[in-house]
Amino acid sequence: MRGLFGFSVVEFVKKRKRSQWFSLGLKSKQIQLSNGTSLHCWVLRSNNPHSVGNQRPALLLIHGFGADGLMAWDTQICALGKDFDLLIPDLIFFGNSTTTSTERSEIFQAECLRSMLHCLGVESVIVVGHSYGGFVAFWMAHKYPSVVRRLVIVSSAICMTPSTNDSLLQELGSSDIKDVILPNNAADFRKSMNVTFHRMPWLPDFIYNDFMQAMGGNREQRAQLLDAIVIGSKNSHPLPTVNQDVLIIWGQNDRTFGLEQAYLLQRHIGEKCKVVVIKECGHVPPLEKPIELKETILNFLLLDN
């Protein structure tokens, strides 16, 4: 049974959001790659561009681990779509994206997104990545510098180590980060959300159960994605850097990845990188502080040129 009395609130919200996105001109595309991967991507391309030369820059928005592209970036598309062509994919094993490959790392996700851009005829992009999506965005910028023009990292601990989450796990009484990111029941989900959000409103258990059923598919494969993350793993090589201009955006009250991680990344990247901290915000600025997030992104992309 889905939701309360068989009614799924989350599915209802997703259906309405899909209708709204279609009405705003976004198109739903399923791209088949040669490596056995099928990527779903929302695409917005304007016939009335604002930029010089009748060609607007393309903006690739990469979601984190808790949602697909639709649910993660709904608060941003109206503002960002005024000045940019938008590409909003579902990462592999989220939304309608899947693969027959055994590869699971965030580097593989980055390679697939690069192939997706080629299939769509997009030569260069500005990339915005949140949390796990920031890992993917970072590898795209490193591996494909001629494709990624600028980079925005949102609440993504690129410089984390195997012990970065130890204090959080101890606080939650867990031994594995998968217990936090892939909760098994409503009580664990509530605990995870109270850590993820700065001020999480109270919700009844049936909403948490509904969300887990509606958004929690491919659980085994998603656990494999977590196990395969290269960044911060015990056997990873020294972290490379990137040469693009980089903006790091962080919630001041992020408990998933503490604010110190933002400054570690800034020091790692160097002088072409700056940090903006959003006050009274936890790990998910797109949901907690959508206005502040879109203004910060637009200031970096439009006003800083």
Classify the oligomer: single chain
In CATH terms, what is the fold-level topology? Answer: Rossmann fold
Q: Count of DSSP E strands? A: 9
What proportion of the residues is helical, as a percent range? 25-40%
User: How is the main sheet built?
Assistant: 9 strands, mixed
Strand content: 15-25%
The number of helices is 13
- Taking pLDDT < 50 over at least 5 consecutive residues as the criterion, the unreliable ranges are 48-53
Query: From the coordinates shown, what is the CATH architecture?
Result: 3-Layer(aba) Sandwich
What this model shows, in words?
The chain has helices at residues 9-23, 69-73, 77-80, 106-120, 132-143, 166-172, 178-181, 186-196, 205-215, 219-227, 260-269, 285-288, 290-303; strands at residues 27-32, 37-44, 58-62, 85-89, 98-99, 125-130, 148-154, 245-251, 273-278. Strands 1, 2, 3, 4, 5, 6, 7, 8 and 9 form a nine-stranded mixed beta sheet that branches. It is 40% helix and 17% strand. The relative contact order is 0.14. The protein contains 13 helices and nine strands. With 305 residues, the chain is of the alpha/beta class. Helix 4 (106-120) packs across helix 5 and helix 8 crosses helix 9 (205-215). Mean pLDDT is 91; it is low at 48-53. Residues 57-290 form the AB hydrolase-1 domain. Pfam families: Abhydrolase_1.
